[in-house]
């Protein structure tokens, strides 16, 4: 597997070179792995929305607590008590707070999805984004500023 930890690897990245390494990979396989990676990227966005949901729900609960305090100070104890008992700290789903929703999602769906996407990379010599690298090689204008293959390519600075 190729090191993908820093820009020093870019000059030797077979994805950016094409040639024999890339020709050994079947195009339909590269497209299929790319499609699975794209699906995972969508799952990553959904996961981010779950974290936003979690943070917004928690923030709403603290704001509700402040509203309850203000209602108490304004002399509306009955409503404040009802809100405190019925809504403050309430589950967002049966038996679940938002953090539990995230944990269940990660264990039940996100984790397995991620493992399968990584497993699919075995079909591309362990490298992610081979399909996108193909697009980069095909679409960039070689020699023009802003179209360098790597950050270290002359003309990039």
Identify the notable features of this structure and list them briefly.
157 residues, mainly alpha, 63% helix, elongated, disordered N terminus
Please describe the topology of this protein.
Elements lengths: L13 H4 L1 H5 L3 H47 L3 H10 L11 H23 L9 H10 L18
What coarse outline follows from CA principal-axis ratios? elongated
How many DSSP-defined strands?
0
Write down the secondary-structure element order.
HHHHHH
| Main sheet specs | none
Strand-pairing-aware structural class: mainly alpha
Helical fraction? 55-70%
Evaluate the radius of gyration.
25 Å
Name the poorly predicted regions.
Answer: 1-8
- The number of helical elements comes to 6
Strand content: under 5%
Q: Kindly report how far apart the N and C termini lie.
A: 30 Å
Mean pLDDT: 91
Question: How would you explain this protein's 3D organization?
Answer:
It is a single chain. The chain is mainly α and 157 residues long. The chain has a domain at 26-129. The chain is built from 6 helices and no strands. Helix 3 runs antiparallel to helix 4 and helix 3 (27-73) packs antiparallel against helix 5 (98-120). The longest helix has 47 residues, at 27-73. It is elongated and about 75 Å long. The two termini are 30 Å apart. The model is unreliable at 1-8 (pLDDT under 50).
Write a brief caption for the model:
Helices cover 63% and strands 0% of the residues.
